[in-house]
Protein 1
Amino acid sequence: MPVSLSKGGNVSLSKEAPGLKKILIGLGWDTRATDGAGFDLDASVFLLNEAGKVRSDADFIFYNNKVDAANSVEHLGDNTSGEGEGDDEQVKVTLDSVPADVAKISVAVTIHEADTRGQNFGMVSNAFMRVLNADSGAEIARYDLSEDASTETAMIFGEIYRHSGEWKFKAIGQGFAGGLAPLARNVGVNV
Amino acid sequence: MQQFIRGQRAKISAFSGRTSQFYLQITLSSARVRVFDFVCFGVDSRGQLSDDRYMTFFNQRRSPSGEIVLEDLADQDAKFEFDLGAVPAHIERLVFTVSVDGAGAMRDLDESFLVLGERGIPFGQPLLQYRFSGADFEIEGALMLAEIYRKDGEWRFWAQGQGFKGDLSALLRHFGGQETEENSASTASVSTPSVPTASSPISAPTVPIGAPPSPPISAPATGSIVVTPPAPVVSSAPSALQKAIADAAPGSTLTLQRGEFAGPLLIDKPLVLDGNGAVIWAQNGPVVRVSVAGVTLKNLEIEATAPENFDDADVALWIDAGAQTVLHHVRARGEIRGVAGAEGQWRLPPALNLGEFAARQTNSFRLEIEVPHACEIKSTVAGVSPVPARLEAGRREIELATIGIGADTFLAGQLEILAGGVARTVPISGRATNEAAPAQGILLWCVDR
């Protein structure tokens, strides 16, 4: 029975799924039911230290930089239309390989060409982030953003973080003004 | 009057707490499309028109009890009037639509807008405006312009601005309604709602509201109790939360599920109330009152959403004399009484609207406030920072700077002023555009204004 989180809530992955080694982070949203330019959403992952900053630009994992230096976090690719059941984008994390100085893994989603297409998260339905046990495929926890999204074009959906020797998942749902670039700069990436 | 952009959502109580009666005026302009159809669909929790008496349009201008009325109708504009307090529980959403009558598409629209405003009270105000034009659309001929919908016991507004190619028929298909076959040679504007028949799959007169609400949990003698937000129906019955407090054993912990709970609330026994990020709100205060010692409040937001002009209506948190209370991560929109270190003369703006400011540049705003204690100031809006972040007691000036916010970004968040273990909050709004010039030291508010 997966745990359902609301904004701000967190859950211990280590307690919910003892012996957890690898997780899949699944991100999804409904394809556009109305007519008009489709929504193309991109997931980005930031590996952050205790200070909430990347250690280097290589800690910014996205469609052009799919794996980190330690081979612990892998972006499994983009689904450009949001069609199909389940996840639209997935990120695989091998927990034991995550470098010790990485305190949290922050997962953001941005709308591609949001400005030119005049789109924002308020127009996207049923966005969610979930965490699965990559070995068993079992869903551990899920966060449905629904009402937490509005006119933002970039959002931090959630984060996976270390806490007293455990891994936890926190539902963030924090919209970020101004798209991916300022979001990345905010955590210390040079873009 | 606040400007909304497509996709924006807000609680109606954020603008108006004085009335449940509103109007929605749609004013279209197009040189190429002469005539539009205007329809308000009252749909159930599945988004279906299961009760087609709640399709309000030229051929059926009143819902059964007059809750929704198409008051004015012309070729390019219409005005709906409605009373949200009277809308029956099986109607979850009011969807305000426009569609072309005949040829053309919404990309042919010139500058158009809708306005939501108050009615049924003296000095009713227009509340918000959503502007749109053909540049926002392509081939769509039928638009869901705006929705007013129930969520966590409150009505909210959504500037949806999306639609379908085609005309009114496309909307009817979307909402599961049927067209009556009159003369199907031309599909122009056949729009009588079908009379429900025994065979119609959508003719159930009423449909229960979506998911069954979780009932308040019966209270064990001690330990933790989880309280879920009430079902999405506005109710005047004693709140589930007040009942949970009545049922709780002294010394127990009540944990709220994140969500919104209607107040007011009286806490009259020692216990721990862990809001878990939940909001307790009421139009008028005191919203939360603590009358005994030994209470702990944590992770809670308390809001007096629209106080009227009487004594103490603006009090969010009231702690009786002698009722020592532990506060931990408590935020309040409104006054606070009975907390040492938070009392005294606070003079803060009710809200800060930065208006339209220059995208991607640095904008600076000023405000003067009066604080009776040393306090810390934070902004919850990324890219907006107050300087200085710490104030000594007295009349003080703060600079608010916005840095590098992208075009067409709407700001919605709050300034938090922390003293005595409680944060007072001031909502911040504004919008970054490419058109506006950078703001340089614009004075937003001062104490003696």
Protein 2
Amino acid sequence: MAGLLTVVFDGVAYGMLLFLFSVGLSVTLGLMRFINLAHGAFGMVGGYVAVTLLNGFGVPFLLILPIAFILTGLFGAAAEKAMIRHVYRMPELQQVLFSIGFAFAAGAVANILFGPQQQPMILPSWLTVQVSVLGLDVTAYRLFLIGSGLLVGLLVIGLFNYTLYGAKVRAAVDLRRTAEGIGINVDRLFLVTFSLGAAFAGLGGALAVGFLGLDPTFPLKYLVIVLMVVAIGGPGSIVGSFLAALGLGVTDALFKYLVPEVGGFVIYALLVIMMVFFPKGIMERSA
Amino acid sequence: MRVTPEAGIGVVLLVAAVAAFFLFPGYLALLSTIFILAIFALSYDLLQGHAGVVSLGHAVFFGIGAYASALLGRHGIAEPIVCLLLSTLASALVAGVLTRIVVVGNDLTRLLVTLGVGFLFFEAANQANWLTGGADGMPDFEVAPILGLFPFDFLGRTAYFYTLAVLVLVYAAMLRITRSAFGLALRGIRENTMRMHAIGAPVSRHLALAYIMAGACAGAAGALLAQTSRFVSLDMLGFERSADVVVITALGGTGSIPGVVLAAAVFGYLKDALSSFSPKYWQLGIGLVLMASVFVLRQGLAGLFNVFRTGDRE
Amino acid sequence: MTVALEASRLTVRFGHFTAVDNVDLSIASGSRHALIGPNGAGKTSLVHALTGNVPIAGGTVRLAGETISNLGQAQRVHKGLVRTFQITQLFQSLTVLDNVCLAIFERERKTLNFWRNAGQDKAVIEEAHGHLQFVDLDGLAKRTVRSLPYGQQRLVEIAVALAARPRVLILDEPAAGVPAAQSEAIFERIQSMPKSLTLLFVEHDMGLVFRFAERISVLVNGRLLAEGTPEAISNDPRVRQVYLGRRGAHASA
């Protein structure tokens, strides 16, 4: 029983990371209708930034998180301005080609710069202690992940539902031309939103190193499950992403634990089933 | 009978291929691989270039064809042509079961589902190592001489003519299919699915048929690879293999049959030359080419062909 | 008088919004029937419901007495109910001829044939040329649709619809987005269509409506406000109120 609860805990932590990765993708898909298969690359960038800062320069852990957030966001902004904004209007095939190319290129660059091996991350001691929660012994890092995920989740929901910026995003998601008609600078909105999405993914990547590991295959390894979160949660829906991420994280962890021979691909079977029966996601579009 | 541009270019390519046999006798194995790659790419082009269905899991059928052939060989059915036909049938059957996934949902869900199905089969094959050999692959299965007469030789001559023959057949078949009313209907679906419904087209049925054809053809390619390389492994089902044909059709010009074949040749050659030399830079190169392909030379190699063409077809 | 197309208590909802509310419609065989109403009245939604483009929340649709409400759009086309779209929906990179041929191939169910060369089907190609001749575009048969000006594309849209050999043809704003001179040409072609073909057309231009329609149905806020001959409609005070003017004024698209 204790084992099961630990697995659920891990699943929740995993779900939080998935949520961080998928927030940007969900909004990008809902807002710009851009199928960004390279979104994982931003997670990877955040991870490598974190690792470089921590191992190479000894920057304190809590500081590398916001730095990873900001740097990845800037990288995302640069990519958006230089290339990606031209891809929004292209047909689906071109978007797929471009973003797969981006993912391949990013992984290759990471491989060239850092090598193919797993990156070690030495977590600070206060995160590696065992903490007793509900009679279980869990690593403090798990709690930290869950806490961070909840905090970011609340921030993002607040951002999209209670700020002027969020209102503009939701308006533009609903009807781009009308939004432009009332003076919303949609181009700038897209830039900011895309960069934010990249930044959150980067933050997720930085947090993920100590839990999931980091190597150049990162962008494609988590592609399917992050896409699943967005597809099931409904593109553009933050709450939907949160619930889907949580659900998928726990489900994946549980199946891998309970039925290890099949656990690996249950998640894909689930994807296929869900997409056949719920092609539009489980939540009607609402942020 | 009018000789169409595609048929003409096909003849040119065939002559080039036969010439290569005499000019590059040491490269027959590579050439066979290129022919197989071209067949695989043509199968994907039918689906994506003509019907407009983007699939990121097409390697599933390639892998099924390969594993089917290997398993048949293990169980005493080793004549290559028989194995080829049975493996093609196996792939077609699996495609038939999976057609529902390509006819439901919008573009995103279809993309996602094809991706998921790809990973699903990969993981399943990985787990079922009692059947597939798992990550180690299947190295020993019997491949008999073709029709009992032509054994596969060390230099790869039999393999060369065998794969070339199948490529010629597939090429000709693709030309016929795309020139038929069905081919026109597929292009209609790609251009404007809503309009197709409005002229009474059974869109789901058309897509299902295209999917089964594409799956069967991919299975044939997989079977050929298994037979000529005497080895089957998980990467034949993997995402990289699915991505390969997406890249090739983009480079060749989606919907252009000779363009796709040419692109397969270029891709196959470069991959062989560069990826063993440095896989990281190969991947970087592929990534950059893909990114560039949506901005420049969007019609791929076929864009170059169009210069020689007159305005209309059919 | 036989009824070619009939809707009873037809209702269409999008979420909480009722676009079409219990509408009854009866179109006589051979009639030229217009559907008018202000923007957002639900005309296009009604057309979608008749042709099967959207699901129906209530009511039935009957074609020549046969209930077709549970049939898909493609099936209704094969029964003889064909439509054109308000915004041209054609196969842009195919030739004009191919666009029409495809409609004929589908009608004859020849698209299941994946082996025979479509370009050698003389009967289909000849028929396609015939339809193009009807809209005076036969000279442009080998051009791609994309290369044509919009007005001519609207005519191709009509040719494609005719190629499906409809018994009832629904034209959704056939002259929308087209300059006045060309909209005359379009309606002139419509007027030349055989009497055996029943026509229902949605239109905003009241001038065209009163010239070509034999009967008019007025839709406002998803409900049928009035139905009758052009004279009756133009004299109907409720209709006048809705349109803020008399016959000849039009609500611009």
Protein 3
Amino acid sequence: MVIDKSQRFIHTKQVDESGAWYSLDNAGIIMPAVTDAISSGLFRIEVTLAEPVDEIILNRALADTSNRFPYFNVVLKRGFFWYYFDQCQTSPQACEDESSPCQHCDTNRQGTRMFRVRSTGHRIAAEFSHSLTDGSGGMSFMKTLLARYFALLGIEPGATIGEGDYADILSVDDQPDREEYEDGYQKYFPGKLPLPEPNPHAWHLREPRLPEGRYRILTGRLKLDEVLAEAKRRNVTITELLGAVYLDALQSLWFSKPRKPRKHFISVEIPVNLRNFFKTKTNRNFSLFILLRENMQLGTRGFDELVKRAHYQMRLENDPRSLARQISRNAGGTRNFFVRITPLFVKNVAARILFAKLGENMLSGFISNLGAQRMPPGLLPHIDSFTFIPAPSKTTLTNASVISWKDELIVTFGSLAHSRELEKLFFRRLRGLGLAVSVRCRDDEE
Amino acid sequence: MPYCPDCGVEIGNAAVCPLCGARNPKIDASHEPECGDKTDARHSDFFGEAGAAEALTPKEKRKISWEVVTVAFVIASLVITAINILIVGRLSWSLYPVSSFLFIWTMATAFLVLDNRPRLRYTLAALDAPLFLLALGVFTSDISWAWKLAVPIALFTELVAFSVVLQIRNAKRKGLNVFAFLLIGAAIGCVGIEIFVDLFVLGKIRMGWSAITAIALIPIAVFFLYLHYRVAKTTNLHRLFKL
């Protein structure tokens, strides 16, 4: 395949005598250097079905779906200058699910697929490496898998998939579009722009960790209409409201420390789906983030004040021009000739430093909202719930993710920390706002 | 539906509130968990209360080991010193075992306790052996061999070992490259030792046995690296060298 020079950074796929291979996208390139078996970089989307999962049908559906998403069915390989993805020649098989998700999987190990599908009882779960895709890409895969699974069971969707509300559900009969695996950051590279404002190092929870291999999942369910009404009453979005609740919990933890922490900024990262601003069909990573930040040296802020400030911080940063500065810095770096000719082992060292400086050191935690999910009407009675589980992090220890399904808003905390104090403060605050909250911890039940 | 009395959240049939650990008020009060009840044990484990010993974290285990080593060495040192003073009337031979204990204890402190202070840990570990050798020099009333020979060799060996460990740790795929790094480390180590010995004994460098060792080891290491990074990895060259 001959690629136009101007397109060389955008189109990730190449084919040679050994088959297809893909470059990593601009966000994915840093991940192999900073992930391991615990901070696995795996996030998870899981679905609870009304009926027990049929393993044989699931594996057939998985084979069809991975053929439709060949750019997901890959393993990581090391080149001399860059990592790349090598196409797998076989279809993945679903494996038995375990109580600690997103653990015991080091995608840097040779031959490890960049995603895995697991199932148990009524549950189907897919775990994706952030080297491969983000929440939107993972969700598109999961919905396509579900649609195929139900189709093989003879259940009609009752609507046309692949368009309108169901545009992210792909037909397994179609061929993959080139845009689906393009590097969106490079496609919308805006040229040289001023660097984003530097961010101070944020305070991190310093708690004893759970034993290695354990990742606690604690899920809170709220009524979507109640949360929407509360957000509307305050003239903010649900993400802004939940971001403020997270800041409030962090603030309480910061001030509860017997000795004043040295780092006096608390900061919550809010991932932003760039597909909302820049048109692309890509299922690879295409998201950036906004930081909600508070300086604890200025004293305790009331909750109403935090909500207002979260709202204005989001409004200021959540626009294409501000986000373009981040794209310019990140994508520009990988276009730089001297960066490109630097051997991978040197890049890995630099990646770890950059990730520490511009990544996790800047945030105390993140809360990622995948938004409201829709499935065709014919499938609705067969799906009980969706859950979105954040990737584990040894730096922030506890993070949260949010998803809305039917009339519920589901907030899931993933934690490597022994303490549940952050989760407690978060849900107590929501309860204090008069919202009904139902909480479960999978580790306590399984 | 049952609610946690403290958090106000609905908790279903969970034995305790997942957030604060308060007991579920709707669960029959007469159902007291028996000794070793699974739910209760898990509860204790998660909230870090009694029963934590059942699931000690590696850090806790290391701290306990360090405490045991400390107490044992303190007792042993006191006993040895007392016997020495009782028999000889002054500190003499006991200085050797006591300084050895101190050497081991410092190393144990560095690696068992100082998890969160890597700089201090490695500084202590690096200084431990040279200081121990200097102390032995002082005890033998001839510090010159320690200062001119033992300490340089110790520091040099530590530097080589550290470099080799760093290389091995940073290698994503470990195989023949590990042997190659070890061989290169051994070759450099031999050359260094001979240089320090020559300088101490002869006052000048006259390369002999270490050069022969290095000439033998380095080509083998290079061959291992070649096998590891080029041959034992089926890949297309364009992929490998894509810019």
